[in-house]
Write a structure and sequence with these properties.
Structural class: alpha/beta
Order of helices and strands: HHEHHHEHEHEHEHEEEEEHEEHEEHEH
Number of domains: 2
Shape: globular
Strand content: 5-15%
Number of strands: 15
CATH superfamily of the largest domain: Type I PLP-dependent aspartate aminotransferase-like (Major domain)
Largest sheet: 7 strands, mixed
CATH topology of the largest domain: Aspartate Aminotransferase, domain 2
CATH class of the largest domain: Alpha Beta
Radius of gyration: 25 Å
Length: 448
């Protein structure tokens, strides 16, 4: 058979080699009470055609982002990904060697990692980048743990503008290390609240710009307050195309800048996989999680690439590793690098300007709807609006009308007390007709 290639004779031969008369002998160490006596209550086996039809029906329950007016943000952004990106990452040279365990053999992959690091460090205005991480939330959690190692302190303060999922991921990762996570109340403009919470026991303050509400924050005062208290400043983000238009965390003197890279080269894919970006000041290089690809010369004096630093638990460091993350999201990182190379600096700036233009149009359109208040005044491509009704109900109703309006803040943080706040986003993929459809549909729903 196509999926079960072994014959009964094959099975008997394997059993005889290991000295077993029957397959049940392989499970003698399992307690009898844990063994199933009957078949699991699942549908019987079907043919390939039947299975394909069933999976197709399930897939059709999803609504792809390109099929409707789509204004989802809050960490998941719909951008155009050139067809050449997917074509190149599927070449066998990259596809089969994306996470090299004998790395120096895969020179092309190592060079791609090296180029990726150079691009990320430049984009975020930082000195050193690693060769990527799972996603933005785990990168943020790793930054919290790294700050604790550097400062020998146990408290991490999150501003009220950091994405709630990032905070919860950090809380989960840091709990076993005995680190205290202090999350300030959700705040659309969070600068002032952060600077008043920094004491001598704080390892790091973690801020986000643009924050989860879309607000662009001046991080300079926060950095001064953090450094004055002997703490590190970690600047995180969910939308990396923003730095084609606004200053990144590195420009404000952040010690660690990390976040989500999905917006470049990586489609939404119904939730992933994504790619985490992680950069540090050079003096903290040895405490940085993940791995670093470096440039060198081989025995013949030719240019080559190596893993310069690889202190993950699966390598030489074991229990002393700086991270136990066991992947670098290699194909996602490669897609990011290819797309960024295609854009170049000029293309990225043009893309960012177009995103802001679309968001401005969206803000004006929604602000004109009776009862809607635009809360975010300094934004890139994402805004928060206050509705005269609970936001989650409005989102559900608009979805039934064919408009994916965004994310209710109550879904991200039920305890925030912002049940009437909707986070919405416009990118270069949104047309004038999309925005008009959204505004008209929202007006209709709020009038009901």
């Amino acid at each position: 058979m196509r999926y079960l290639p072994l014959t009964e004779a094959d099975r008997q031969q394997m059993l005889s080699v290991i000295g077993a008369k029957h397959i049940d002998e392989l499970f003698v160490d399992v307690p009898k009470g844990a063994l199933l006596k009957d078949l699991i209550d699942l549908p019987k086996a079907q043919g390939e055609i039947e299975v394909h039809r069933h999976m197709q029906r399930l897939a059709e329950k999803n609504i792809p982002a390109g099929r409707t007016a789509f204004f989802l943000g809050a960490g998941a952004y719909r951008h155009h990904v050139p067809a050449s990106v997917d074509h190149l990452i599927q070449r066998s040279e990259f596809l089969t060697a994306y996470t090299p365990y004998q790395p120096e053999i895969a020179q092309g992959t190592l060079q791609a990692l090296y180029e990726f690091q150079s691009q990320v460090a430049t984009l975020l205005d930082m000195e050193v980048s690693n060769a990527s991480m799972y996603d933005g939330s785990t990168a943020c959690a790793e930054a919290a743990m790294m700050a604790a190692r550097v400062t020998k302190r146990k408290k991490i303060v999150f501003s009220g503008g950091v994405h709630p999922h990032y905070i919860e991921t950090a809380r989960t990762a840091c709990e076993a290390l005995g680190l205290e996570i202090v999350a300030l109340p959700a705040a659309i403009d969070d600068e002032a609240a952060v600077t008043g919470k920094l004491g001598a026991d704080v390892a790091a303050v973690i801020v986000q710009s643009p924050n989860v509400f879309g607000t662009i924050t001046d991080l300079s005062k926060i950095r001064e307050a953090a450094h004055g208290a002997g703490a590190l400043m970690v600047a995180t983000f969910t939308e990396c195309t923003a730095f084609g238009l606004i200053e990144p965390g590195g420009s404000y003197g952040a010690d660690i800048v990390c976040g989500e890279g999905q917006s470049i080269g990586n489609a939404l894919n119904f939730g992933g996989p994504y790619v985490g970006l992680f950069t540090v000041k050079e003096k903290y290089l040895r405490q940085m999680p993940g791995r670093v690809a470096g440039e060198t010369l081989d025995a013949d004096g030719k240019r080559g690439f190596v893993l310069t630093l690889s202190t993950r638990e699966q390598h030489i460091r074991r229990e002393k590793a700086t991270s136990n993350i066991c992947t670098n999201s290699g194909l996602c990182q490669l897609a990011w690098t290819i797309h960024m190379t295609l854009l170049g600096e000029k293309g990225l700036r043009q893309l960012a300007a177009l995103n802001h233009e679309k968001a401005t149009q969206l803000a004006f359109a929604l602000g004109a709807v009776p009862g809607v208040e635009v809360l975010t005044t300094r934004f890139y491509n994402e805004i928060a609006v206050r509705l005269p009704k609970p936001a989650q109900g409005v989102v559900d109703t608009l979805a039934a009308e064919g408009v994916i309006a965004g994310v209710a803040m109550s879904r991200l943080d039920p305890k925030a007390g912002m049940d009437d706040v909707l986070i919405t986003c416009a990118t270069e993929m949104n047309t004038h007709d999309d925005i008009a459809t959204y505004a008209d549909a929202l007006k209709k729903v709020l009038a009901q």
